Amino acid sequence: ILVTPFTHDGHPDHEATGRVVTAFAKQQHLACYQVLIWAWHWAKPADTRIPWHHAVRVDLNAEQLQRKSQAITCFDSQITVDESTGNPPILSTQTIARISQPWEVYLYEPLT
Length: 112
Hints:
Elements: E1 2-5, H1 12-28, E2 32-35, H2 39-42, E3 55-59, H3 62-73, H4 76-79, H5 93-99, E4 103-108
Parallel strand pairs: 1-2
Antiparallel strand pairs: 2-4, 3-4
């Protein structure tokens, strides 16, 4: 099983990685799940740019949710004000709330 960023995530590095990993998975006949990263920053519920019909929800237990919350706080450059420019955090409160839900969402296209 491979996990990669969504191929239309909105961040060039994420999209390039997603395309390469997805192509490799298809070539090797491996299951590949795409994870939404920046899409949580710009997408709205039922956004037609996301292929929701391929979405798989994975509920997290309490320990997994705690680890996820801890992981989010590790990205200090994303969640705090940039003192050198005064710019606000890259991840808004709304975005952090979206990615802090007690589940993960993956996009999965079955192998054909």
